[in-house]
Amino acid sequence: MSKVSNYRYIDISLIYITYSVNSRQKYQFLTQVNYVSTNHSYYSQKQTHYTIELFQEMKYKHLFFDLDHTLWDFERNSSESLDEIFHTLSLQDHGVSSKQQFIDTFIKINTHLWDEFDRGRIHHSYIRANRFLMVFDSLGIPCPENHLEIGELYLHTLPYKKHLLHGALDMLGYVKERGYRLHIVTNGFTEIQARKIASSGISHFFENVITFETANAKKPDPDIFACAVQQANASKGECIMIGDNWLADIIGARNFGLDTVYYNPSGLQFDENPTYDIRLLEELKTIL
Fold first, then answer.
1. What pTM, to 2 d.p., does this model score?
2. Are 118 and 251 in contact (CB under 8 A)?
3. What pLDDT sits at residue 70?
4. Cβ within 8 Å of residue 49, ≥6 positions away
5. How far apart are CA 173 and CA 163, in angstroms?
6. d(CA 284, CA 170)
7. What sign does the CA torsion over 236, 225, 162, 276 have?
8. Which domains does the chain have, with CATH numbers?
9. For residue range 197-224, what is the model confidence (pLDDT) as tens digits?
10. Which of 259, 264, 268, 258 minimizes the C-alpha distance to 278?
11. pLDDT at 30
């Protein structure tokens, strides 16, 4: 308090808050002047607002996201689909005594097959034709003659599931509001990935969806990243790849010359480092 007359005192307060709008860092200052009579018989206040906007150049303009396991909760959606198939086709009558064992075995085999695909050792058609055959073989159960129909039912059911990974929707809203341009880069089938994106309600966030079919290449092949950069009408330095697959997303993008964010909830360690390593999707807010 500082004395300004024989009968009044003045208290000057400076308050500020900060928030972001797109690439603008906005600071709002509030000066608050409190007038108090010496005998406290009355009190008055005057406030004045000042706003300063600082424009910060964003290092990146285009965000390339993987879909499965990065945004779209593949494990949860797949488990729900397999649960429905187990009951719809009465698989217990075919000797599958444990629904959970059926689900766990499928996820293990499917993960292995997609890893082989990423390494260029098998084709998509092999995965479709053989994964349920391999599941029944692993369970020690004679494979039903309709195992291909089971596969088709799975592909019809799965894309309509809507679950996203924790924090994905909030994070997408945050980066979109800040002015970033968003794209999907995926090794999945074009039609199936489009259904997943629509079912989960995130289509409006993305300008482009680049698949192995549209690019005629798959991650980690540099050609799919080249296609993504070209469709975004961007330069490499303006783009960053965000994904959970060390080989396909991180090594592939890095070898093409892009910065990377490794979504690494398990805390896996490798001999090399990505540009950024995060455990939670919310951590992207500290980077972007």
1. 0.79
2. no
3. 98
4. 28, 29, 30
5. 16
6. 11
7. negative
8. 2-55 (no CATH), 62-73+164-287 (3.40.50.1000), 75-160 (1.10.150.240)
9. 999 999 999 999 999 999 999 999 999 9
10. 264
11. 52
